[in-house]
Amino acid sequence: MTASTPSQWTPSSWASKPVAQRVEYPDQQHLNSVLAKINTLPPLVTPAEIERLRHQLAAVQRNEAFLLHAGDCAESFDACTQERIAAKIGLILSFSLILVWGARIPVLRVGRIAGQYAKPRSSQTEKIGDRLVLNFRGDNVNGLDPNDRTPDPERLLSAYFHSAATLNYIRSLMTSGFASLHHPRDWSLSHVRSSTLRRKFESIVDGLADALDFSRAIGTESGKEGPYERGGGPGVLGQVDFFTSHEALMLDYEQAMTRKAPLPGDDASKPRADGFYNTSAHFLWVGDRTRQLDGAHIEYVRGIRNPIGIKVGPSLASEELTKLLEAVNPDKEPGRVTLITRYGAAKIRDHLPGHIQAVTQSGHPVTWVSDPMHGNTVTSASGLKTRNFGTIISELVSCISIHSECGSRLGGVSLEFTGEFNEEGFSVTECLGGSMELSEDQLELRYHSFCDPRLNLEQSLDVAFLVSNYFKEERRGNAKAHDIFKSLLGSEQK
Ligand SMILES: O=C[C@H](O)[C@H](O)COP(=O)(O)O
Ligand SMILES: C=C(OP(=O)(O)O)C(=O)O
Ligand SMILES: [Mn+2]
């Protein structure tokens, strides 16, 4: 082995490296027995689905599709209910329909769902009253209740079953007509309170219905089969891919869900080599706090076949970025790596151009995605973590502009959002602004996030319309991102 050859990878080789954000369990034997059980449970996703996502991400890299990566910051076990899951999926479908309508390119949907439980934190502990307790690290680690902060391995098992139940319901929704373009009104519309937003969504749905009628009339869409419940097949319009993702943070769990399987091959008569697949989700990402080149998280993801994301923040030097790409994708395979940038609106200009230049020079194929949420968190006067709609849009606009100035292209967005609403039909109040002009004194009304503030239903649709309108203008040959967004913002944010 030469100095530059990486050492042998195994599903457990990460354990010999420093583990940032490590969770200390009081009872190691208990942890081991839970992990042994998880290792016997069936995969949540299959290698074929994982390969399919790689393939589709390669299309994003060729600018043939746009990636929507979205969902909760911290998913919770209590949110594993019919209504909450349907609301999340409904928002993702609505958002992507709005994008497809404007951009006229397919949207690849990857939810932060069915496993997005663990959280890295800025601080190990927090002060509650005059008590110093361990910080909440996500439902698969410890409880939000300050008296339940000791990490409990049983929560990993519970995470598996909550992921399984969530994914099972998502798969049912996807195959039984909920996602069909024939029914976009079922997705979220009845809970959108703003009449302007409702009208704008209605106008897309009407346009779509017209287009479908037209294609039925000219015979390109048969529509003869009828709805799923009366024996119809999904048809082209009901065939919707949906992929799951979470942060690869709890490496013991990820290792236990890693399985060996034959790699894809075109020639059925030839034996196929094996690869390792993380079967807990289709897409896994490494966070900004755990992406150290010599750390455990990068060591783990470098050996799995799943497409992976790496969060890229202001503290990442360009040379380290290229070394990371070498480590996780030495063969420069398309569709393998997504870079999720999250600098903050005020810092993006200082860092993104250098990162784009370094990646271009390295010849590494990547999908560039903007996460305009994580670099823009502020604390409100009342002490709540929040984010400003205008700042979020500002980072997104700068990101699109910088990519085009550097001869690159933004391939997708990564958002923390939720379509959930309470019994009276009101959505959450965690981020400021948007067309509903949510103000600081409203934040406490329905602040439900377990970790970071999410865009609510209306604010998410605001983003969808802005991005969609931008791509529509661009498609029509109307120039600059900044100017288009500025004029759109003027009309969206009265
Ligand atoms: O989602 C990202 C991080 O886990 C989160 O921003 C950390 O939040 P904290 O700074 O409150 O620990
Ligand atoms: C932890 C996250 O983000 P980052 O690593 O970019 O802070 C996240 O996306 O939830
Ligand atoms: Mn977050």
Automatic annotation (TrEMBL):
InterPro entries listed in its UniProt record: Aldolase_TIM (IPR013785), DAHP_synth_2 (IPR002480)
Entry GO MF terms: 3-deoxy-7-phosphoheptulonate synthase activity
UniProt pathway annotation: Metabolic intermediate biosynthesis; chorismate biosynthesis; chorismate from D-erythrose 4-phosphate and phosphoenolpyruvate: step 1/7
Required co-factors: Mn(2+); Co(2+); Cd(2+)
GO terms, biological process: amino acid biosynthetic process; aromatic amino acid family biosynthetic process; chorismate biosynthetic process
Top class in the EC scheme: transferase
E.C. number(s) listed in UniProt: 2.5.1.54
One Pfam family matching this protein: DAHP_synth_2
Tree of life domain: Eukaryota
Swiss-Prot/TrEMBL keywords: Amino-acid biosynthesis, Aromatic amino acid biosynthesis, Cadmium, Cobalt, Manganese, Transferase
Reactions mediated catalytically: D-erythrose 4-phosphate + phosphoenolpyruvate + H2O = 7-phospho-2-dehydro-3-deoxy-D-arabino-heptonate + phosphate
PANTHER family the record matches: PHOSPHO-2-DEHYDRO-3-DEOXYHEPTONATE ALDOLASE (PTHR21337:SF0), PHOSPHO-2-DEHYDRO-3-DEOXYHEPTONATE ALDOLASE 1, 2 (PTHR21337)
Name of the protein in its database record: Phospho-2-dehydro-3-deoxyheptonate aldolase
Origin organism lineage: Eukaryota, Fungi, Dikarya, Basidiomycota, Agaricomycotina
